[in-house]
Fold this sequence. Notes:
Strand order of the largest sheet: 7-6-5-10-13-16-17
CATH topology of the largest domain: Rossmann fold
Radius of gyration: 21 Å
Shape: elongated
Number of strands: 17
Structural class: alpha/beta
Number of helices: 10
Number of domains: 2
Helix content: 25-40%
Order of helices and strands: HEHHEEEHHEHEHEEEHEEEHEEEEHE
Largest sheet: 7 strands, parallel
Amino acid sequence: MNQDSFSNVERQQKILEFLNRQQRISVIDICKMFSISEATARRDLEVLTEQNDLQRVHGGAISLKETPPKLPIFQRESSESDEKKRIGSAAANMVHDGETIFLGSGTTVLVAARALRDHKGLTVVSNSLPVLNTLSGLPDITVVALGGVLHSSELSFIGHITEQALAEVRADKVLISVHAINLEHGLTNDYLPETMTDRAILKSGLQVIVLADHTKMNTVSTAFLAPITSIHKLITDKKANEEFLDAVKSQGVDVVLV
């Protein structure tokens, strides 16, 4: 394509169209597509970054996808089920007998809870009804339930009462799921009233471990929760974009692929 064929806006729109199809684009690709200099291609990417249309990575950009609204918890259990099983199992293997852990809400954390049933001497604190039900009645696990306002679609307790209880909790590890993870926008969720409770959860543990499959990577949702640097470890599956994960690692987060 000739450089004069498109205006800046038209060229940037074409870049987005390509990115939406291919999920990634390099500066070299843009130069070849439009017969423009690398400096012009980088300026186009910077403009689109400022508009929150894409995510810059070394040598180019990757697609920035906005996540759809989250379905109720039991409608999500079958989604990415193989990946969730591997992620949940890996998370459970990181928990040692005798530890105090916090388990948040969500289907992937619920998988981890099921894998923890044979652990010995655990103290499990949770605001998730499915997690509490999964681990209740086991002789070697002490379950601490946090009350509050019931978020019906997630079957989790949130709000001021929950946050007050969390202020008294000191866990060795926190295992949580999030709706979306992005370098610039950090961790985001789709339910604003839950955000303050989730922030209190992040502060309750010595080590914060996020469980999230590849569909959550490089996406943005409605409510800002915390920067990526607020977590210590991310467990995800091998379908996640490698360049994005490299960028997450550069923020000091330990990334585990399963």
